[in-house]
Amino acid sequence: MALTVFLDNDATATQRESVQQRLRSMPSVEGVTLETREQVHERSKVDFKDQPDLLADLKPEYAPELVHATVTDSLIAEAIEAVMTEVDGVDEVSLRIADVDPRPSWIGIIVRLKSSATSEQRAAIQEAVRGLPHAKSVGFEDRDAAY
């Protein structure tokens, strides 16, 4: 699975390195690379070459810095995504199924609850997830078990 971490616009060099190091230390994460604003800007010029109006507004300083990685175990990909959203200097994290063979036989979701969520709120969320089409199982892990 392809993981892209969008860094905060004001992320420091220390935060950029910390994000990369954190990913490199995780199991089943490979190919961690940084894409600078300038590289993203140059790639965008190629990607949007057929849209000259959009290209006119693209400036390197508006482009985000990105950290790319590949998660080789689809069973823990969403957990890695959730962990990375909490790292200092991270604005957003995107996880997508890359062209992998074999494709995962199932994809799960993780719903993160605030620590202040009541048992009634948790039960309502579990019931809502059970009501989703194709939902086969629903489980709950407390913070310690998830860690």
Describe the structure.
The structure is a single chain. With 147 residues, the protein is of the alpha+beta class. It is built from six helices and four strands. The chain has helices at 13-24, 37-47, 52-57, 77-84, 119-130, 143-146, and strands spanning 2-7, 29-35, 66-71, 90-96. It has a four-stranded antiparallel beta sheet with strand order 2-3-1-4. The protein is globular, with a radius of gyration of 18 Å.
List the helices and strands and how they pair.
Layout: E1 2-7, H1 13-24, E2 29-35, H2 37-47, H3 52-57, E3 66-71, H4 77-84, E4 90-96, H5 119-130, H6 143-146
Antiparallel strand pairs: 1-3, 1-4, 2-3
Structure summary, number of beta strands: 4
Element string (H = helix, E = strand): EHEHHEHEHH
User: What is the 3D shape?
Assistant: globular
Query: Which structural class should the secondary elements be placed in?
Result: alpha+beta
Largest sheet: number of strands, sense, barrel closure: 4 strands, antiparallel
CA distance, first residue to last residue: 21 Å
How many helices does DSSP assign?
6
Helix content: 25-40%
Strand order, biggest sheet?
A: 2-3-1-4
Q: β content, as a range?
A: 15-25%
Average pLDDT figure: 85
Provide the low-confidence segments as ranges. none
Gyration radius (Cα, Å) is 18 Å
